[in-house]
Amino acid sequence: MKKLAIVCLLLFSVFSSAESAFEVLSLNSPVKESTANFLIKFNQNLEIEEVAYQIKNAGKIFEKPTNFQKVILSNGPEGKILKVNVSKLNSGFYQLFVKIKDKKGSEHMYKTKYKDHAMFVIESSLEVPMPDPKKNNATIAGIDSDNDGIRDDIQRWINEEFKDLPKVKMAVRQLAVGRQNDLLSVEDRQKSILAGRKMLGDLACLTVIAGLDERSRIDRELKDKLLNTKDRIYAEIKANANFSGQLWMLPNDINEERAMCNFDLNKL
User: Which of 22, 81, 87, 198 is the most exposed place for a label (fewest CB within 10 A)?
Assistant: First the structure.
């Protein structure tokens, strides 16, 4: 497997295991409507002064997150509901950061042991047209008509190949985004290293869902389809060279592997 010939020592960040003052639970991920809804469950008696959220596209690893936006929670049958308008966001994997300021002026950020954000996926349209091969292969990036980070021909293959395996399909989509970022960042070594590290986490996510042998088979097939031109093959060679000598740590247990997924496995 690419890059794992390197001595694997350290990368994965582990967040505090201390209990957060509140939980953020996605109610409708994958999101197919214009609004993503989250249940806020308080673990402490908080007198809320202000609630704000911030969104980051987990697949666009070099993009900055949006600014924090204040929001008013609505009442739901199980607790407070945070509603986020996603009508202007592209399909893909997203991270939601939530902070609450109480009436005493203290600020509380949502986090779990392994993550500092909640997750949701936008699937406004899983189908895209098959691109013209000549135009699609003219560049390393190819054609990505819905701007979800996956080449259209690869997206169609994933949708068809794994249509009856929703968890595997989501993990392969995440890996496809990671491998595409890996190919497109090779001209900036630091960005290339970051993309390589993130992609190893994407591989770990697929491993925990499909198992090592099946992960290896799927990844080989994905790479065969991704690296279908000379320029794309050269880009992967350069990505490997950029990553040479870097350190990374294999997950310690299944919970760390699951935490590397950009989606909630319990929702599929």
Answer: 87
Per-residue pLDDT tens over the stretch 27-41: 999 999 999 999 999
Would 9 be classed as within a structural domain? no
Between the CA atoms of 115, 117, 122 and 128, what dihedral angle is there, to the nearest 10 degrees?
Answer: -50
Q: Let me know if residue 149 belongs to a domain.
A: no
pLDDT of residue 18: 54
> In this structure, are 112 and 166 located in the same domain?
no
Q: Bridge partners of 35?
A: 85
Q: Is the pLDDT of residue 12 over 60?
A: no
Q: Token pair of 3, please?
A: 């890059």
Report the C-alpha gap between 87 and 100 in whole angstroms.
Answer: 24
For the chain, percent of residues with pLDDT exceeding 70: 92
CA-CA distance, 214 to 19, in Å (whole number)?
A: 36
